[in-house]
Amino acid sequence: MRPDEPPSAASVDARTIAPESLLMVRGLAAGYDGLPVVRDVTLHVDPGEVVTMLGPNGAGKTTTLATIAGSLAPISGDVEFLGASVGGVPAHRLAGRGVSLVPEGRALFFSLTVREHLKLAGGRHGLEQSQLFDLFPELEKCIDRKAGVLSGGEQQMLAVGRGIISRPKLLLVDEMSLGLAPVIVERMLPVLRTIASEYGSGVLFVEQHVALALEVADRAYVMNHGRIVLDGPAAELRGRQELLRASYLGESAVAATAAE
Description:
- By secondary structure, this protein is an alpha/beta fold.
- The chain has a domain at 1-98 and 210-260: P-loop containing nucleotide triphosphate hydrolases (Rossmann fold), CATH 3.40.50.
- 37% of the residues lie in helices and 23% in strands.
- It has a 6-stranded mixed sheet, with helices on both faces. Strands 2-1-4-5 form a 4-stranded antiparallel sheet, with helices on one face.
- Strand 9 (219-224) and strand 10 (227-233) form a beta hairpin.
- The protein is globular.
């Protein structure tokens, strides 16, 4: 995109994707029982980059993340990670290659302690617990508590901590802020920037707090009705609030607003 161009109102052209991208998704269709929920999704994430996916509920954001993470197989299109096609590769194998998903709902084991969660998720080349506690000092204070007795904020910190302690190459985060007070969200979202900047991980996260997401992210994609209807640098989208609001209404609203 040239500096004088507005953010795109359509899916990113595959030719604009940098060859060094960590993650490349081209023309993805994905869904359930053979019925597509998302169609023709093209996006990319580079090493050390933070990218957010925005859009109304039901837009297809979670389905897109689940397909990238290997929980769903694509119906068509391609998912590439580190230059290799991985569409349909099971989630546990992608995790071994360096893809980590923090799912909506956290998926914690309530009978296990914080220490046990981190031990299970850690790897030989992962973060030291001290490094993780620098990011989330609250976890050190409850290291031997079971997940089931933690507050909502502490549980989300544990879910993210479990996701990053293996020092993934690609971190996928689905709705970090779900059910949390805004002050907790403001505390946690900048951690995604730290993971990208200090450890070189690519980060792709779904978020409903649009303003906060655009403060943290380098770039953003907006999904609606299963398609990407708007994309661009986060700084540009922050300055085009009318276009951003229109993207939540659909592709035709984006086109009409962009033409004004």
